[in-house]
Amino acid sequence: MDSLSATNMWWGTLGTVRAFPSFHPARDVKEIQSALERKDSGTLVRILSNRSNAQRQVIANTFQEITAKDLSAALKKVLSGDLEDLLVHLLLLPEQLEARRLQQAMVGLGTDEETLLEILCTRSGKRLQEIAGSYGQMFRKDLEKELRGETSGDFSKLVVSLLKKEATPASVHRDIQALTVSLNGKKADPGPWIDILTSRELEHLDKVLMGVELENGQTVEELVEKRFSGDLRLGFRVLVQCIQNPEVYLAKRLATMKTPLVHGIMVSHSEEDLLMIRAAFLKLTKKSLYSTLQNHFKGEHLQALLAICRSED
Question: CB 70: neighbour CB atoms within 10 A?
Fold first, then answer.
């Protein structure tokens, strides 16, 4: 199993979006064609937000066969803004969506390091290779080279190690000692932290981090904050959070209610573990994700988000 992909990190039955039981792709395409002609965004939202990703792929393919047109391109002609962005997200394969989010995090001036980290830290090595493949197909660029070009120093080593993560057997005791010793000098040595935290099973890492906390009398997050700096500190902080409580980390990201984060996280986790993220969101903010969305968004865009969220907690 890939690093960071133990079964308790992947709740495959805890998604909010399930396959639509009475699925008739030709009927859906007929309704979508009519809705596109009338610029009826409500019908587009009703259909696309209530089908699984696999079903949406069938709809897109059927639309192409019947009309000789690309459904995403057709949506872009009649929609705009946040609603367009969300519905186009829904039409992408999961690995394509993550590839696009990575590309958007690196395009233009500056780099959105935390979005890079979110994806690299919460996805398994196998999934990341699929994402890298999609990235190459979509943008004609090598994802590893792009990451190296957008980052530097030890932070660059960390993100590349995350991209290429692969679990190797190791001793919990030795890993605890290696991480503890790396903190003892005047300047902390990030090497062992990069090597160990990107190349072990999740269950192993849980034990290692608990051991480091016992050895040092502080939480790992406190140690990271004190002993590292800059992007590397951010990288270790996110990685530790994703090892210990990935759903809490994602809930914190959602709590910002920044539209790109809401779209990216809700769509990419809608068929995997959004129920867990919803529960963490409620515990974290004392408000349900459903009601919080209602307070920040409106119109058909809101209706699409609520359909993905599914229900009040």
Answer: 13
